[in-house]
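May I ask you to review the protein record following this short note?
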Amino acid sequence: MAKKTFTKKIFLFVDKIFYKSQNPPKKTAALLSELVVHRDLSPCDEYSDYKIDVFYKQRAAGEKYPVIFNIHGGGFSAGEKTYRDYYVARIAKASGAAIVNVNHPLGPENPGPIPLRCLVQSANWLEDHAEEFNFDLSKTLVMGDSSGGYYAAMLAAIQGSEKLQKVYGTMRHKFGAAIFNCAIYDLVYSLKHPIPLGFTSGISLDITGLKRKEALNWEYMPYACPVDHVSPNYPKSLVVYAKLDFFAKGHAESFIRELEKNGVPYEEFHSKHFLDNHAFSINLNNAVAKNARAKMLSFMTEFFEKEPD
């Protein structure tokens, strides 16, 4: 069994101390009572340990639900779908969409490409269960925060790439839009420009199973950087980022340039101050975070209300 990295210990600690503030017990329970909640569904036999939850506000019989496929963050080594319960339940209520909130394998015990192979299967689950849950597969959006944003960006690339599907598995479902929240888009840049306190070394082990310098030659590195796999068929995107992000400063700007180069429609929202830092939008009481979430809801609503081409 892989030894816990320094970063995994840090991110597990962060999860523990912020869980109640991000999921106020009474508010979370009251909000979930207003929704239909399906817990711990298995997306496939191969990754049966990694469950998904489905939340939605009941619609009239026969009315279809747009879908938001949400991937939690946690530095590639921590986090859990239930840590975003309040966050995604609010989105389900406000947007009218069905939230598919997913778990995935964590590092360093499960280095790449394992997590993305699992997430591809979870995305395919939408195709297999659309009739059961009345999903509108013409209106599906993938989103994630931090490491979840990285995985969301990779899924958006995998769905249109035969080359990537040879690595991560056939992806039958195609998302029409995406929201990336403070994602890491360029692993090579991160490895070559380490951040203080050993975070880069730990994250390298969590993602690749290799030490930082060895990871630059990781066999999957050519298939692991979202910034390298943007194409003209990439989905319409909203890029939420912190201008002074401690973990991923400059990543979003590079990613946006690739979206522009490939003619991909996109919108962006960013914070400007250091205290509004990595994954700032999940902070419930911060004014800038509230503005970011309003932008996200507006982006979702516009996508869901648009008539299919």
The beta strands are 36-41, 52-56, 65-71, 98-102, 135-145, 177-181, 236-242, 266-271. The longest helix spans residues 114-133. The longest strand covers residues 135-145. The chain has one domain: 6-305.
